[in-house]
Amino acid sequence: MTAATPSTTPAAAPVPIVNISCYKFVPLDNLDERRTTIRRRAVELNLKGTVLLSHEGINLFVAGPPDAIHQFVDYLRSDPAFADLHPKESANEYQPFNRMLVKVKKEIIAFGIEGVVPAQRTSPKLPARELKKWLDEGRKVHLLDTRNDYEYDLGTFDNAIKMGLDHFREFPDGVARLPEELKDEPIVMFCTGGIRCEKAGPFMEMAGYRNVYQLDGGILKYFEEVGGDHYHGECFVFDQRVAVDPSLQETPTTQCYICQAVVTTEQQQLAEYVAGKSCPACYREAAQTMAELIASRHQHIKAVTTPLPGSEPCLNRRPLNVPLRCAGMTLIEFLTDLHPQIEREEWLRRIAESNIVPTAPVRRRRRSKWVPECLPLSPDRPVREGERFDQLEPMSVEPDVSADIRVLHEDDEFIILAKPAPLPVHASGRFNRNTLRNILNIVWFPCRPHVVHRLDANTSGVMVLCKRKRVSSIVQKQFENRLVEKTYVAKVYGHPAEEKFACHARLGREAEQGGVRLIDPDGDEASTSFEVLQRLDDGTSLVLAFPLTGRTNQIRVHLWHLGFPIVGDPAYLPNHQLGSNHTLSPSELPMCLHAESIGFRDADRKELHFEAPLPDWAR
Asked: Most CB atoms within 10 A, among 186, 219, 276, 293?
């Protein structure tokens, strides 16, 4: 057996892609039928690009293998309206278009000026070789670039006039700015492929210019026939190539993904250019970008909260979920256990008025028919673990809250806020739309920021939100594992004897009457350390609190337990008295507890630290 010898047959060279572009102003009818048949043929030939049709003609940019392109051009020429199409061609190594589009438009080149009909009349066309001859001879002629400014800046003819255009529709205004003496002097106008000049020329003649020519076939035809003489730079093209040089080869020039500005090779070397994020045209210093973003967020927050979302009457639904401990209870037993702060008689009234309903209709079998459960529900109806009910509050208006939400920082992953007080974070009790969560969902739509921790409605200060679930999970685990550094400032009644002290009393797992949580030797572990900042003359003190665990109301309960209740706390009162854990009104004195700072790590384990400005009572 002999060993196989390597093949010496050379690999077949890849088939090049041919780009064609052309237009024709000709009256067209049956546009929808033409669109359907042209698109069908282009798809059959596996071509990509754009074909624009209107009653004034056709404009196309299409790319594909040479044989397919030539078949497509032959197909178009079979239509008498397009029999004399002569597309400009250039080669490319890849397909510069993503898909095949055939569109019906009002105009194949947007201009919007009545009386300009290129199919009936255009300015005299000057062939590319003739223009080169004029320029070689130094003949007196004014070159007028009818393209947009970003195209001019990338490359143009020597000494060409810049019109100052952002869009071709602005061309009439640009003409009005030209010197009056040009009306009697020779002008040669040009654009990428010639189509804009077909409308620009007649318009200039209507405006009184008496010696106007248009470069036949535009810059691309000039490149094709005579190269780059008297031209400097590149030519912008409207496909993924972005720009070509005078040899009609693609250049390294690209476009900014953010602002669509043209980015030259030299500009791509600058620090301001970050692919997919910024370019010299749209780059902003990080601090400036952040400030502009935060200002826009604050403006949106103000618009959303003026008036407050919950100030308009509407039907609110409050979820009531049956936990395991309540399985087998009657409906009234479940409700009074879940919310002991509400009297039994009040729950019975709400049941009787059909304001307690199943979240999803519960169906029971009766004689081979499925029927919804009747309302009102019976107070003695048993409930199951995981069953859900809605508490209906028809045409309810929610209490006022403070909506002065301040954004401290925002990037691709995090939103850091200074939450005002009073403002509930989640829907509960009397609040549904007047909540931080609801406001953020509106302002950041379609993003729904993930709340990774919470503050009491009456507590102000720094909060961390994540834009993505993956990052949210990473940060939440840091809270669960006690790796987050949190500092609170509180104003308390009394003067602690020691500069530093701590409390490790366990907290009850369930809320008591009035929604308060109390010290319970059998409850959850809880630890907070404290440090006195200042003892004030009015008998109060400012203290720092460092929670090592994150139990509900932990700082408030520990300070109250030690005999130093927080000033303004509606639940944990002086002299070990209890009130109700309700949300204060903005008109009432605030509860003096503020989350001053927080430290954690991002998904790349980089340490982050944020601080919220102190409220007036803590300064």
From this structure: 219
